[in-house]
Amino acid sequence: MAWKDRTWSFVVLWLLLPVAMMQAQQNPFKDAPASAKEMKNPVAGQQSAIDAGKALYARNCLSCHGKTLQGTGNVPSLVGGKLKGVTAGEIFWFVTKGSPDNGMPPWGFLPEEKRWQIVSYVEAMASGKMTGSAASAPEPASGKGKITAAAPKPPFTDFRYEKPGTVRKITVNDLPKPFATKSASNGAEIVPRPENAWPVTLPGFKVELFASGLDNPRLMRTAPNGDIFVAETHAGDIRVFRGITSDGKAEQSAIFASGLKNPYGIAFYPPGPNPQWVYIGSETELARFPYHNGDLKASGPPQHLADLPAEGHDTRAVNFSPDGKKLFVGVGSGSNVNDPDTHPDEKNRADILWWGFAMRAGRLRSIPRPGSCGAR
Ligand code: HEC
């Protein structure tokens, strides 16, 4: 009896789920308020809006609703009479709020103009007036096609087959034996970004260009007030970005500190909403600048706290433990394989150093001496 009861609870669940989803799909517009129904598309019928909407559709909607809007899996089609009698305002309303419980993300974060452009494209497609290649949304550019090499054998892959959300498990047994092939050097060459080439994200996320023209930006940290600090390593600068415009760009950009040697690590201290200092790990030193929420420029000169080994892999990451009692600094190695016992230059390298941490008269007192979290 108990077994039977349990079986039933499974059967009922399995039956209810598809029914609930089908109901949602049958009339997604039934709760639209009258005001939504009457909203007018400010770019209705404009070819430029349809074209812009097509590109936006390709980036945001295609992965679920398909190249020709025909739907995929249990994601509904938007063509073939599906949107008959539905007004532009209702489509705009539905796309804005989405139907998260049923797998349709909300798109309210896209600027209104862009949502209307998408509506224009969807309506043009739904009306059946667009046909042939003008109709189908372009696949996001991927670089596929130019390379004729065979697909790598799983579990290995290459960039042509990589997609966010795809996981591959590579175990030791999958690896070739050491020295199975000769060592090869095949460094990457920087080329201009092809038009429309864009990072691909999971559904519900999108990527926009926030800032460009930076010199070797290598690390980004968000201050408690939302300002974004970026280490421009080659330029020797720490830059701050603030705010975001309606088209996704930074509102303000300023140099917080300059004249540093290959800066990389950035950490706010003390941890929490009201830091008083920004710690910066540069190639040869750990230093800190006075900082208060909202500063776009350091209000005083840096204080030197510790020397760090020079050259080699020059990134010096800096972090505090959540309780603020320990300071960690990652130091890259100076070579590929040397042992610090035989090569003293490798001392305190390929390591995370830490200080039990107290400031006295503006100097870092280590309690005890700098330690090493490295595996030796
Ligand atoms: C992650 C997958 C996914 C993405 C991405 C997505 N949708 Fe949807 N969409 C769905 C699902 C699932 C439904 C059905 C939701 C329901 O029935 O409540 C849906 C429903 C719709 C509907 C209602 C159609 C109907 O008859 O049920 C419209 C219109 C729509 N989506 C437009 C868009 C637009 C425009 C975009 C891009 C801005 C988009 N969708 C992106 C999954 C997605």
The SS-based structural class is alpha+beta
Amount of helix: 10-25%
CATH topology of the largest domain: Neuraminidase
Helix-strand pattern: HHHHHHHEEEEEEEEEEEEE
Computed over alpha carbons, the radius of gyration is 28 Å
Total number of distinct structural domains = 2
Total strands: 13
Low-confidence stretches: 1-24
CATH homology-level superfamily of the largest domain: TolB, C-terminal domain
Span between N and C termini? 61 Å
Strand count, sense and barrel status of the largest sheet are: 5 strands, antiparallel
Strand content: 15-25%
Tell me, rounded to a whole number, the average pLDDT.
Answer: 83
Shape: globular
Q: What is the CATH C level class of the largest domain, in words? A: Mainly Beta
Number of helices: 7
> Which ions, cofactors or small ligands are bound in this entry?
heme C
CATH architecture type of the largest domain: 6 Propeller
Key features of this structure:
5-stranded antiparallel sheet; 20% strand; binds heme C; Cytochrome Bc1 Complex, Chain D, domain 2; 376 residues; 2 domains; Neuraminidase; alpha+beta; 4-stranded antiparallel sheet; 13 strands
Description:
Helices cover 20% and strands 20% of the residues. The chain is globular and about 75 Å long. It starts with a helix and ends with a strand. α3 (47-60) crosses α6 (112-126). It has 2 domains: 22-135, Cytochrome c-like domain (Cytochrome Bc1 Complex, Chain D, domain 2, Orthogonal Bundle); 208-372, Neuraminidase. It has helices spanning 2-26, 34-38, 47-60, 62-65, 88-97, 112-126, 132-135, and strands at 217-222, 228-232, 237-244, 250-257, 265-269, 277-281, 285-290, 303-307, 316-320, 326-331, 351-360, 363-366, 371-372. The protein contains 7 helices and 13 strands. Strands 9, 10, 11, 12 and 13 form a 5-stranded antiparallel beta sheet that branches. It has 376 residues and is α+β, with helices and mostly antiparallel strands. The model is unreliable at 1-24 (pLDDT under 50). 22% of the residues are buried. The longest helix has 25 residues, at 2-26. The structure holds heme C.
